[in-house]
């Protein structure tokens, strides 16, 4: 369990650091030139490593634990934005950081190590269909869809990818995951989620989009894991786990609306220049 939990924490830290790296890199160039910045390229590589670590964590930990830890990458983003980008950090942000970290300790203890189980009949087809629906909806909404809708689609895309990854690990190691049908919703859901979320950041409020995605990618996979994929809460820990998840989500929402998170996600400079950067929260 310790190894899987460390993988989830490392994944969360990786996503948070990647966000700051992209923000700094994007300030050195505009438009497509920002994507070619070495720091931004390195950030994309770090994103990939963080994703692989999340897959390793999903092999032995329930979805509600892994997704809550990954959503807490907002903690890393806000703290690093304060140090690296000199962004404003409110007293509320400090309280939220402490609350989220404390809540995650309880969530991790309530989950414990739980190897993935084989999904029920029809699960694979349903998951592939869901990923396809989200992908089509993302393409339809991409040009002029409301930012809130795009954020919802982003959260659903990420959720589908996580759910499929948790179910896929029931059949073996990482190579087995890549070679089975559930790899389709992992990729399609992840790509659709990333596109929708980036578009939501571009067209709407950074805080609103980050909050919506954070909540959805914790709640939806958590519910599916508990009701369909055999995840469970340890005896006597149901109430503490529910309370801790609620605290963690409230804390993540507070951090999502932080000026520090907005500076990191949108690439706003202290002087107000906007150089948006593609970054993922959680």
Automatic annotation (TrEMBL):
Chain positions covered by the region annotation Disordered: 262-282
Protein name (Swiss-Prot/TrEMBL): Integral membrane protein
Coiled coil: none
PANTHER family per UniProt: CONSERVED INTEGRAL MEMBRANE ALANINE VALINE AND LEUCINE RICH PROTEIN-RELATED
Alphabetized UniProt keyword annotations: Membrane, Transmembrane, Transmembrane helix
Signal peptide location: none
Bilayer-spanning residue ranges: 6-26, 38-58, 64-85, 92-111, 123-141, 148-167, 179-198, 210-230, 236-256
UniProt biased composition (Basic and acidic residues): 273-282
Keyword Nucleus carried by entry: no
């Amino acid at each position: 369990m310790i190894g899987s939990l460390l993988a989830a924490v490392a994944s969360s830290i990786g996503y948070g650091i990647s966000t700051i790296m992209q923000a700094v890199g994007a300030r050195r160039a505009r438009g497509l030139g920002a994507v070619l910045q070495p720091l931004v390229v390195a950030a994309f590589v770090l994103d990939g490593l963080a994703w692989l670590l999340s897959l390793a964590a999903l092999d032995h930990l329930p979805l509600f634990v892994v997704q809550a830890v990954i959503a807490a990458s907002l903690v890393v983003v806000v703290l690093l934005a304060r140090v690296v980008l000199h962004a404003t950090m409110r007293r509320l942000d400090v309280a939220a950081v402490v609350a989220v970290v404390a809540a995650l300790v309880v969530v991790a203890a309530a989950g414990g190590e739980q190897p993935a189980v084989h999904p029920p009949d029809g699960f694979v087809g349903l998951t592939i269909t869901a990923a396809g629906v989200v992908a089509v909806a993302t393409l339809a909404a991409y040009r002029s869809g409301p930012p809130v809708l795009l954020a919802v689609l982003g959260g659903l895309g990420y959720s589908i990818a996580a759910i499929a990854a948790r179910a896929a690990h029931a059949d073996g190691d990482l190579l087995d995951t890549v070679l089975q049908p559930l790899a389709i919703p992992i990729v399609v859901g992840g790509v659709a989620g990333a596109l929708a979320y980036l578009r939501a950041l571009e067209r709407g409020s950074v805080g609103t989009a980050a909050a919506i995605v954070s909540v959805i990618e914790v709640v939806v996979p958590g519910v599916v894991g508990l009701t369909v994929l055999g995840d469970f809460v340890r005896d006597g820990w149901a109430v503490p786990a529910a309370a801790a998840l609620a605290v963690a989500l409230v804390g993540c929402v507070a951090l999502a609306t932080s000026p520090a998170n907005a500076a990191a996600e949108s690439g706003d400079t202290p002087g107000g220049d906007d150089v948006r950067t593609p970054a993922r929260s959680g």
